[in-house]
């Protein structure tokens, strides 16, 4: 028996939300995932998450949500994170006392999937707790929970740090899936001890853009060194980046990981 998991990279703004809603039925038909996850730290016009935008995603068919360094950009996210049955987690290595949880067990029939969200520290503006030690702490906490799979969303800048965490957790988790840079990498593989790894899934965002943001203002920023407003295109061609991971639920090891990249008009 296997567990099939589909995860979207950073979903950027309205165009990203619409793209997920448009393509997900097709992907569900093709892959038959047991669990659909999306990173939603850029969901609400590129910064943070709101009740309304999260509802759009659940209506579209996404089951569970992770975030990143923009997790708290919208004040209302605190309410979402504190809900008893919240489907949204924030990175576990934020300091103690931060609202919400950094991991959660998602139940699929008799199977249980632990999803862990972590932030990297290399090249990041803020100083977070050590993601390596936090991962150890969480795995120790759930060691007797008879889990079928363990999925880690590692939201980090440096591919070296993401590779390092992948090898550090090899054989202990089912997959380490990188997010944050919005640039999909081509280094996906199953590591020697059975952990699927990709250093960045990529984004679900406007194709004619710079990392999902309107290119004109980004160019102005580079040319003038004056900060510009980040505008998110709402229509046009959208790049959809996701990964499909199949896990042997008897030993929690990955069977395969497949990259998904499509472009659709919104």
Task: Please specify the SSE layout and strand pairing.
Layout: E1 2-8, E2 10-11, H1 13-31, E3 35-39, H2 51-60, E4 64-66, H3 77-82, E5 103-108, E6 111-119, H4 131-141, E7 149-155, H5 159-168, E8 175-179, E9 189-190, E10 196-198, E11 203-206, H6 215-224, E12 237-248, E13 253-265
Parallel strand pairs: 1-3, 2-11, 3-4, 6-7, 7-8, 8-10
Antiparallel strand pairs: 1-12, 5-6, 9-10, 11-12, 12-13
Number of strands: 13
CATH architectural arrangement: 4-Layer Sandwich
Radius of gyration: 17 Å
Roughly what is the average pLDDT, rounded to an integer? 96
Give me the CATH superfamily.
Metallo-dependent phosphatases
**Major beta-sheet overview:** 7 strands, mixed
Please give the alpha-carbon distance between the first and last residues: 37 Å
- Quickly give the structural class: alpha/beta
- One letter per element, helices H and strands E, the order comes to EEHEHEHEEHEHEEEEHEE
Keywords: Metal-binding
Binding site for Fe cation 2: 41, 69, 155, 180
Binding site for Fe cation 1: 10, 41-42, 182
Protein name: Metallophosphoesterase
What report would you give on this structure?
The protein is α/β, with parallel strands linked by helices. The chain has one domain (2-265): Metallo-dependent phosphatases (Purple Acid Phosphatase, chain A, domain 2), CATH 3.60.21. The protein is 25% helix and 29% strand. It has six helices and 13 strands. The chain has helices at residues 13-31, 51-60, 77-82, 131-141, 159-168, 215-224; strands at residues 2-8, 10-11, 35-39, 64-66, 103-108, 111-119, 149-155, 175-179, 189-190, 196-198, 203-206, 237-248, 253-265. Strands 1, 2, 3, 4, 11, 12 and 13 form a seven-stranded mixed beta sheet that branches. Strands 5-6-7-8-10-9 form a six-stranded mixed beta sheet, with helices on one face. Helix 1 (13-31) runs parallel beside helix 2 (51-60).
